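Sample log: Transposable element Tcb1 transposase.
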Amino acid sequence: MTRLRENERNRLIGMIRGGVSVSTVAHHFNVTRRTVYVTLQRERATGSQKDRPRRLDRRKTTDREDTFIRLSHLRDRFKTASQTMAEINIIRQNNPISKWTQFWDLLDRRVRMRQPQPQTLLQLERALHEEWDNIPQQAVHRLIGSMQRRCQAVILSRGHHTRY
């Protein structure tokens, strides 16, 4: 069953106040009568229909990993959850961080900071060439030197966001 959004809860309360029966309202929103009663009780007690605060635990898997898990079990329905988790951990630890990706990000930031910004493809090409030539060699060496720290951060974050 789907969770009612705030505007649906407002409509639900309006229908009840308008004299529509609880069963009809429940059928209209495809929820149980108990959901209607609980919504009405909460509105009477708090004067609000807003969602209550929920725990904000960090997700253990990314959307990409969820897709991997689903497809993995569709391909091999006898695979255990621990086998799948072991595969995910191997993938997380072998996730390559390319220094070229970082270099292109650096180049992208430098081009985006230009004033005025390139408006045509030719201007963009010129800006890329100029910024490529203007990137100090020290920045490239610093980027290469930071790769070990970056890789460690990705491994420790287990696929979640890092500060890099």
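Observation: Residues 6-46 form a domain with the Arc Repressor Mutant, subunit A fold (CATH 1.10.10).
Observation: Residues 62 and 149 are 22 Å apart (CA to CA).
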